[in-house]
Amino acid sequence: MRSQKKYWKTYWGVLLLCISLLTACGGEEEPEYGYLPSFVSVPDKVFQTMPRYAIAEEGIYTIADTTRNAAVSLYSFETEDKQKIFNSEVQGQAVGLGIGGEENRRLIALFMVYEKAENGDVIYSERSSLLQCYTIEGQLCWEYGIEEESGPEGAYNLFVAPDGMVFVEMSNYLYVFSSEGQLLGQLEYPDGEGYSPGKNEVFACDDAGETYLVRASKAGADAEDSQYKLYSWDMENGTLKEQGAVDGKCPVQTMGERGLYFRDSDKMYQYDPSSGEMTPLFSLTENMISAYKVRNLMRTENGWKVLCMDHYRGSGTQLATLEWGALEQTESLYIGAINTGAYNEEVILFNQQHPEYLVRVRDYSNDDPKDLGLTQLQLSLVNKDAPDLVQIWSREIYLNYGRKGWLEDLTPYVEISENINMEDFIPHVREAMTVEGELYCLPSTFNINTLVAPVSAVGDKSNWTIEEFLEFMEEYPNALSSSNARQEDMSARKVGVLITALQRGLEGFVDSEHGKVDLDNERFRSLLTRINSLQIDGSVGGNDESRIEEGEVLLSEETISSLDAICQWERRYGESVTLIGYPTSERESGGGRLEVFQPLGIVSRSRHKDAAWCYLEETFLRSSAEVGYGFPARQESLEQLIAQEQKPGNDNGNYSDGFDENGNTGNSYLSKRHTDIIWNAINTSVAEDPVLHKIMLIIREEATFYFSGVKSLDEVIEVMESRAEMYFNENR
After folding, report:
1. How many CB atoms lie within 10 A of CB 433?
2. pLDDT per residue over 469-479, tens digit each?
């Protein structure tokens, strides 16, 4: 008895101790910390042209492009206003601006100066360059004439180091000046090639104040394919000395501070040239910054400022500010994506309008063309740290995610929504996104893949059977533009005809619902033999426009994603066209394939489902009203969009090349004929069946052996059926 009392006393003592420890350790959870991104749009009027600006912590300095006393202005980050500071003291065309120096900050302006004839006329063919150094207040410190031209487009690069030294890259030489304006060196480039703005090279100073030129030695389409060499200025010998190379990253110019910064497609880094260490700083993807838009970077007291531009002329410029702090005032949401740039603009707008939420994007992409990062993205959906929303890459993936329970059914959310109901969707879009009666995403936009043909060749019909398609191809064997990529590869061109015939026609030979395939029949054999007998001309070449001009009939595989698309095609053909669609096995209306553009679904493991729904609902409503690509998936929005474009006299030149119902062109509005064609294509289209798609890949692969003469028709059909049945057995 005493031992039992001792046991319970010990038990309760241990339990109370555990409770007290848990209370002490977990009474207050540590807040989550991270960067809070905000964005400010910089007015386009701030920039005269891309090379004529310089950035510092206070704002963006610009210089007017004029031949008369160019004005230097400052766009303040604080006031978001642009004001003139002073006028230059030289008459010449301003082609560049730089800023630097720590205690005595100066502006360096580069001018293109023209010679004048005796009568005072400007001789535009004779020009040189003038470098001038001003204080911020507009006082001229020094100037230096450079005989070399800067080039008509401003082929130069200016940099003012923190110690006041000035570096000027021109087309042929690199010039180095002291802080007092003394020319220290006129250097030839290390690789013998002059400066080119397209090389994206930068100047930068490390923490010790040493200046480096970062110059491309290997250009790549992506940052990961590039290599940049680093050269330092050797004061003693007056030369550039190579200091190593950086692979797989692109340099980013600083905003008048020290630091060598690089980026790849996802992150920003700081490079230490003495150790060769590359330190990650922050994610561009998670903070909705498109890597290719990054132009300048500046460290702030509590984070970073990043200047982002779409083009070299300042169009669509934004200043992103990343402030480090506790995220306790916000509810963080993450979008898992492969194509991360698809949501940047809408995420930024949503975050600005909803400070209670912070939506970020996680990048799961990789360089594997067979996977793209989809495997890693799929694994994330079942992990503890799953994203809240996931990008749907294809309908096959969508069906897979939904059936495995990885996505939240949105039907209950729609039922209680005051803004959305099931009848809002375009019917075929809703059907495509419904999996066994449940809806797992809110599709914002969609498009239709179809075949476009001139009315003179096929009449005004909008559908045909496989046999009618074959008759057309026998009359015009070189018509299919999608099969003309390689003129000499006859088997590949015949496979292209076969795939076109089966895009919608395969359902006549395969029952995907019951897992049955029937290819060993007279109809399918006839399909293959007739295509193999096509008299395709291997000498037919040239682009579509030239072929049409020469009077050839052309059948084009196109994507219709805008109301003026038909007008564009009719301008190319020079006559009325019809969206005849892919051939079907039996007489059916239409024949287009419906595609929903990368919608988002709520991950079933998300801990922020209500917040995720708020994001989906709002972006769905906004995207339906302001569509950038594709048609709005909301019926009312599409009807309103069409009604707006049908108004006569709306002065929209996009429709002037299309033929209306009376055969007239020159319309400034969407004609009834085009409206009817579009609605017919939408209402008769179907989403791709993933099972049929897999069978199509088998048929494509095996048909190549028949069309190239490697295997007989019997051998090919036998293998096709065998592989198709094996696929069905493995996936039941």
Report:
1. 26
2. 999 999 999 88
- Tell me how far apart the alpha carbons of residues 17 and 11 are, in angstroms, rounded to a whole number: 10
Contact at 8 Å (CB) between 104 and 164? yes
Q: What radius of gyration do the chain's Cα atoms show? A: 32
Report the distance separating Cα 299 and Cα 60, nearest Å. Answer: 15
What is the 8-class DSSP label of residue 634? B
Output the six-digit token pair for 350: 């949503």
Q: Which two tokens stand for residue 219?
A: 């250009």
Contact 572/548 with Cβ under 8 angstroms?
A: yes
Q: How far apart are CA 536 and CA 549, in angstroms?
A: 20
Highest mean pLDDT of the ranges 3-7, 165-169, 714-718: 714-718
pLDDT digits (tens, 9 = 90+) for 100-109: 886 667 888 8
One DSSP character per residue, 599-622 reads -EEEBTT-S-HHHHHHHHHHHHHH
Other CB atoms within a 10 A radius of the CB of residue 394 amount to 15
Query: Where are any strands of DSSP class E within 443-499?
Result: 445-454
Identify the three-state secondary structure at position 443: coil
* Count of residues in the chain: 732
List the structure tokens of 11: 């038990």
Q: Give the strand order in the sheet containing 183-188.
A: 157-160, 166-169, 173-177, 183-188
Question: Which residues, in sequence order, are CB contacts of 678 under 8 Å at separation 6+?
Answer: 560, 563, 566, 642
- Residues 6+ away with beta carbon under 8 Å from 532: 494, 706, 707
- Residue-wise pLDDT for 47-66, tens only, equals 655 557 888 888 889 887 66
Please determine, for residue 316, whether its predicted confidence score (pLDDT) is greater than 90. Answer: no
pLDDT digits (tens, 9 = 90+) for 142-197: 999 988 766 545 557 888 888 888 998 888 888 999 999 999 988 888 877 777 76
- How many other CB atoms sit within 10 Å of the CB of residue 560? 22
Output the pTM of the full model. 0.75
Tokens describing residue 726: 């094996």
Encode 687-723: b = buried (16+ Cβ within 10 Å), e = exposed. Answer: bbbbbbebbbebbeebbbebbeeebeeeebbebbbeb
Please state the separation of Cα 614 from the chain's center in Å: 25
